[in-house]
Amino acid sequence: MDNRKFLPVIIVIIIAVVVLLALSSSIFYTIDAGERAIIFYKFGGGLDKENVIKQGFGIKAPWNTLHVYEVRERSIEEKMDVLDKNGLSLNVDVTLRFNPIYDQIGYLHENFGINYVNSLVIPEVRSAVRQVMGRFTAEEIYSTKRGEVEASIKLETEKSLKENNCDMKALLIRSINLPDQIRAAIENKLQQEQEALAYQFRLEKEKSEAERKRIAAEGEAVANKIINNSLTPELLKMRGIEATLELSKSPNSKVVVVGSGKDGMPLILGGN
């Protein structure tokens, strides 16, 4: 049997295997957990934004391009210099946690590309921080309205990222640093305001206490007036007799002289 007639077939198979092995990285792909992917079809339809590929193994034509996105939650830290309402320079340290919206990475890729963190996320955070802090004074940002400032920055950043296919998980303003001279002036002013409030509180407390005493004194005076008006001589004499009778019942030895006291009231003498 002449095996030479099978030689071309064997050569073709060997070449096919070599080509397949060489192109395996362009044909076979695996999407790991925490990843999503989209395909760009070079010769038909371009970027497929609607069909997002989930984790697992897949096959594609070697001329098509696979774009893999990490969709796990990520964190970035930004330090920036901003201006307050009066043009005073502040240094702000911000931390942002976010991730791309899983089923919208095709649109994210079309608009911003694989480097969307630098082209979208960071600029939007910086813009929101600058816009919001530009509406407040340094004193408000540093003390009285810090919560409102943080809430406004979070709201504007979240809205902007959501419109561009990213989901903001949290935004934290870790620190707001002012020039030492300005910070000292603000802290001194706040201390003086607190002392003034404390002094005002003491005045109000003393005023309330004085008013309470005045009302109590007036009530006591009215009560005494009522009592004095009701104490007639006859009533006093009757109360004296009742008291004398009660004392006479005491086991202690005593001498009762009837009619010898003032106004004929009994007198009690002696006793232990």
TrEMBL record:
<dbReference type="GO" id="GO:0016020">
    <property type="term" value="C:membrane"/>
</dbReference>
<keyword id="KW-1133">Transmembrane helix</keyword>
<dbReference type="InterPro" id="IPR036013">
    <property type="entry name" value="Band_7/SPFH_dom_sf"/>
</dbReference>
<dbReference type="InterPro" id="IPR001107">
    <property type="entry name" value="Band_7"/>
</dbReference>
<dbReference type="GO" id="GO:0007005">
    <property type="term" value="P:mitochondrion organization"/>
</dbReference>
<keyword id="KW-0812">Transmembrane</keyword>
<feature type="transmembrane region" description="Helical">
    <location>
        <begin position="6"/>
        <end position="31"/>
    </location>
</feature>
<feature type="domain" description="Band 7">
    <location>
        <begin position="26"/>
        <end position="190"/>
    </location>
</feature>
<dbReference type="Pfam" id="PF01145">
    <property type="entry name" value="Band_7"/>
</dbReference>
<protein>
    <recommendedName>
        <fullName>Band 7 domain-containing protein</fullName>
    </recommendedName>
</protein>
<keyword id="KW-0472">Membrane</keyword>
<dbReference type="InterPro" id="IPR000163">
    <property type="entry name" value="Prohibitin"/>
</dbReference>
